[in-house]
Amino acid sequence: MSRKNQKRQKKFLIIASPYSWGGGIKSMIDETIKSLKIINYNYLLVIPKFAANNTNLLEKNYKEINTLKFINFDKFPLIHHVIFALKSMKYLKGFDKYFAVVATSHTALPFVFSKKPFSLWVATSYADELESKYNSLMGDKPARKLRNSFHWKILASIERLVYQKATKIFALSDYTATKIKEIDQGLSYKIDILNFPIDTLKFRPFENKKANNTLIFTGRINDPRKNVILLLHILKKLREKIPDIKLVLVGDNPNILVRETAKKLKIVNNVEFIPAVPRDEIPKLLNKANLFVCTSTQEGLGISILEALSCCLPVVTIACGGPESIVIKSGAGYVCNSTSIMRNKINQLLSNPKKIERLGRKGRKYIKENFSYQQFINKIQ
User: What span is annotated as the signal peptide, if there is one (predicted)?
Assistant: First the structure.
């Protein structure tokens, strides 16, 4: 075949929030890159480095841009976002598609400066994220201070501006879409839901025997939004009826507050802390548990909940945004408006293994039908 007749490989530029932040944004970046590789797109990933954290990105096709190491990002995010936008301008030429993968929309500011047409895949609104941090039992003073600071109005204006300039806004969930519309109702016509793709061959039910009365949560347990302190209090109450109940927390090495709370509540023997593990090992841990539990104050989606459902694990969650529509639509668990309701639902399910199995099957079916790579690719290409 002559070069003239060969189909040119499309070039895709991705601007994303810092990979070093981990959690949901790391997974969103990983799955975007994986999807582009499936359809054989050429791509470049441009990410900021707002702090000294190691990126640990196993990719060659990326550029990491340092902002200001001596200025704290949590206190002065606006400065970092503007510097990143200016420094990244030189990379924004010669691509067929411009795509932002962001926790909040500010990281896509380079596209606004360059006047490039771009699509945006966003996890959450900024105000919602900050409020959920300082309203948790763990608390977050820097988040509260930023929300009440003089330059909050500027940050909010930039967030709205990025949404207004985007050609297409892909929300991570129904909940995130609603929060974006609250910022500007005029954005409704260009908002769509882009479901996070789940590898259902990796996240699947195993044949191994499950442990008895075991709950699991996977995520950044030191993040105030995850509200793990509340989960420990719920566990203490559950132990009154189920003495051998166990909670497995997979993610960070627990901070002092989390460890001291477990000691104070005298539930140390009922909690197992497992530090961060490779994502490939998560399915094994999920398959050993009976239920996935979540007490977050806010989740844009709750990717770990999708992974649990794909492994046939029912979910019991406090009402916290993103997980609500997933659990309700799948019919594979319960959304609870109080801790007492959550305790009751956990008790009911642990005493009814057949119902756990039935809900688990419903959850996996829902994930396979709605969170495929092909559906994701069809929307972004």
Answer: none
Q: 10 Å Cβ neighbour count for 54? A: 8
Tokens representing 116?
A: 């490039």
Report the topology of domain 11-194: Rossmann fold (3.40.50)
Is residue 108 within 8 A of residue 118, CB to CB? The reply is: yes
Question: Which residues of the chain are in CATH 3.40.50.2000 domains?
Answer: 11-194, 214-370
* Contact assessment for residue 172 and residue 124, using Cβ atoms and an 8 Å cutoff: yes
Tokens of 283: 């399915």
Q: How would you write the pLDDT of the chain (381 residues) with one tens digit per residue?
A: 444 444 668 899 999 998 878 788 999 999 999 999 999 999 999 999 876 565 666 567 888 888 877 787 878 888 889 999 999 999 999 999 999 999 889 999 999 999 999 999 999 998 888 888 877 777 788 778 888 888 888 999 999 999 999 999 999 999 999 999 999 999 999 999 999 999 999 999 998 777 899 999 999 999 999 999 999 999 999 999 999 999 999 988 999 999 999 999 999 999 999 988 888 999 999 999 999 999 999 999 999 999 999 999 999 999 999 999 999 999 999 999 999 999 999 999 999 999 999 999 999 999 999 999 999 999 998
DSSP string for residues in 200-236: TTTS---SSPPPTTEEEEEE-TTSGGG-HHHHHHHHH
Provide the CATH number for the domain formed by 214-370 in this structure: 3.40.50.2000
Q: Are 199 and 109 in contact (CB under 8 A)?
A: no
